[in-house]
Amino acid sequence: MDNEDLSKEIEFSESCMNTKKNYDRAAKVEEARCQNLLYNCENCLKTDFLCAEVCCCPKAHSFCLICIKKLVEKKVRLRKLEFKCMADCPEDLNFDMLLVSFFYHLCFIYI
User: Fold this and answer.
1) pLDDT at res. 2
2) Beta carbons of 62 and 56 less than 8 angstroms apart
3) Do residue 51 and residue 32 come from a single domain?
4) Helix count (H) and strand count (E) of the chain?
5) Judgement on whether residues 53 and 101 belong to the same structural domain of the protein
6) Are 92 and 85 in contact, with CB atoms under 8 Å apart?
7) CATH number, domain at 60?
8) Taking the model in full, what pTM does it have?
9) Which superkingdom, per the lineage (predicted)?
10) Residue 4 belongs to what domain range?
11) Statement to judge: residues 21 and 56 lie in one domain
12) Are 93 and 64 spatial neighbours (Cβ–Cβ below 8 Å)?
């Protein structure tokens, strides 16, 4: 097998894995929808997030992990490690919750 064949095989395998992940997520979203357990991001306004795909402030404002990641990157660049709610409420985002959410997100990507 030459490099080109190997590249095609890797691309095909990754495509199959992504298809399975998308199918599995779609099934989880549908199940959560039936139980009214889906979340919306109050920052980017996208919908249909699973509980593990969002972080919430103590007042229940929910934000997707992509928006949280952008917030954390911005704050770290500015050397400000205070993570306030993005919905203009006075609450802080819970740091332990952020860590758990990112850990789950990493597991979801690589499994």
Assistant:
1) 66
2) yes
3) no
4) 3, 2
5) yes
6) yes
7) 3.30.40
8) 0.68
9) Eukaryota
10) 1-36
11) no
12) no
With residues binned 3-state (H G I as helix, E B as strand, rest as coil), the percentages for the chain, rounded to 5, are 60, 10, 35
In one letter, which amino acid is 81? Answer: L
How many structural domains is the chain composed of? 2
pLDDT digits (tens, 9 = 90+) for 39-64: 999 999 999 999 888 888 889 899 99
On whether both 98 and 78 belong to a single domain, the answer is: yes
Collapsed DSSP state (helix, strand, coil) of residue 39: strand
pLDDT in tens, the chain (111 residues): 666 766 666 675 666 666 777 778 888 989 989 999 999 999 999 999 998 888 888 898 999 988 988 888 888 888 887 888 889 889 888 776 667 666 665 555 554
31 and 45 part of one domain: no
Q: Which residues pair with 84 in a beta bridge?
A: 92
Q: Determine the length of the chain.
A: 111
Do residue 31 and residue 42 come from a single domain? no
